[in-house]
Sequence to fold (259 residues):
Amino acid sequence: MSPFPAVHSASPQPIWPDRAARFYAHGMDRSDYGAQAASALLAALGRPASLLDLGAGAGHPALGWVAPESPWFAVEPSRYLRARLGRLSRTSHPGLRPIDAQWQELPPIPRVEMALAANTSGPLEAAEQLLGLMRFCATRAIAWIVPAQRGPKRWCLSGALPAPLHREEEKPAVAAVLAALGPQRQPNRSALFPWSFSARFETREEAFAHCATQLRFTSEDERHDALREHLRTALKPLAEGGLELSAPKLSALLIWDLA
Fold:
């Protein structure tokens, strides 16, 4: 029997295929997200003595925040991302323990000082349930990092496109998260930090094909020409070769003080 509170209304999400996880991780490698997130976490909370990291990805926000020897339970269902975490545990962060699970099915772990959910779907899809689980696991603080830009957020590069192309809701996601929590579960404090997601493509055609797939274009979609024209100016040549497409982001760091 699980030692954690039951999660009744949050079903596990589909796990990324390796190719999608690799694209995401490589974009995060190129972006300033890890540095900006770690700086915000460090300024707000200091270094955690131990950490539960739900939806850890490739570990970008925690790498510059968690001390190498500190226990870091990194819960990540993607095989590719978990393999990257495993390499970190063998090199820079011996306290890191990758865990193959989604947060809805968390296996038994020791209680930790802090719990983190950064750039993962839980706060958007099951805010109340996730917060309850993290309160059970952490003793001093909970931190969430959620999208706060007034713009699209369905996929990493949608913010590099104008609204007629991405056709997404542009309200800041943080507002929906706070509304879902209700007045009794609001964070004690918060902060904002900007960053950008950047992806490298070998050719313009490769960039077009990636965006068209993410936008779910059909062969008859009237946006083909508009996308090609936008990418003509949005793609920037790189000194090392290839082209880069970047999307501006803004994240909200939400903090619950438990101690």
